[in-house]
């Protein structure tokens, strides 16, 4: 029988009408074991939009009353011992993130296919043999991770134009035997990992996925031995070009003279051999990328961010960390990092409407920091490269932009508005200006208070999603970066964006200006140090620490995380 006194967190969430609840680790696992499961009172918290119960091996089932949490946007049930998930999970119509990885699941409920708003599905590290038919109904899916299961094939309806937002498919360490040529219908696909499966062929149609930037087919015994060698050492671009040529050249090759073809191929093979050697060296270097996590207990003066309760109605989610080891001095390293950040804003962050990244020079930060809200008349910020101004001006520009939108004259923003907004946001272009306007309208329309990150001197160093402060701007001389990601969507969204940003910093794109080596070191491996940052509420209770053990996990194959 439930003893509510053993679950003070539930009572606190109910009394304060909080929207986030996290149970994680051994202490909570003991309570779950003694109670015979989760306290039933948890299913009465209908305001919750983020629920996490993780690293609790005593948790073997979730009650069907989970269907009452209709406001849930993120449900994180990873690293437990769940044997099943109730099909009524399909009643969670607002759910955007579902993480049930590292459990004992052998089958997924059909109800998952009813989650129309779902954008992230992680079912990795289970014992699944099949995926449910109907996943194509989840038309907002952008990330699927089914790695480390026993899956032999994708559902028949999986290769569908309906999944036009699916950009990341991670399916390594399964028993998948075939990849259909219909994979080209997944037009938004950017990353595909099918390593360590049972594939014999890679369809040439894969090369028709115009946005595909990263593929991994290592560990498959392909019938085309040349292709097998390429997937173990070459860049994605080279593999796709080979597949493209293989698809187009079949008929021409049938009528070609065999001997002449062999002579022509000999010269090409010699050229490819040189290219492949360089590519293999690059892959070998990538595999040495290391991220070392520095725990808060190892840094007595670790930075902590206090989160005001007022932000819950404006932009409630925040994760932060400190990064050391970046080399921003060499070449265009700083420019490339900023370009990568902009790309994340455009893609993963939905042009700032889903999440926003801010970067700061740690040496210029005056701790402690507070994530708070201010009325537009009092929110003063020195935007990048500009003079101090209040958010009231930005509000007026937002209202004018909104009015122009209604009049369908968005392309004809008058000169004064455009110039002022470009100045406020330090935007590089009119298109960026428009993107920030869109984000501002979505976030702040009807809001009386605006979110901001404030330092110990009362200065605003970040005004998400609009601008950072000149006060903490990063430069080529910056040695330590303070990173923040904010969102109104979910905490998991913040974590996903931060994961992606750290991977970019670690040099996983292979462009060379990644982490710097220690002076006097002869090692070629690169190591990035990520220091945990805690965010706490006004009572000092922990809200989140990043990175945790569940962050920076298995989706990135060429990255090693050292705890």
From TrEMBL:
Residues 387-419 form a coiled coil. The keyword Kinase does not apply. Residues 259-268 have a biased composition (Basic and acidic residues). Transmembrane segments: none annotated. One of its GO terms (biological process) is phenylalanyl-tRNA aminoacylation. SUPFAM superfamilies: L domain-like (SSF52058). Residues 246-281, 506-527 are annotated as: Disordered. One of its GO terms (molecular function) is phenylalanine-tRNA ligase activity. This is B3/B4 tRNA-binding domain-containing protein. It comes from Dissostichus mawsoni (Antarctic cod).
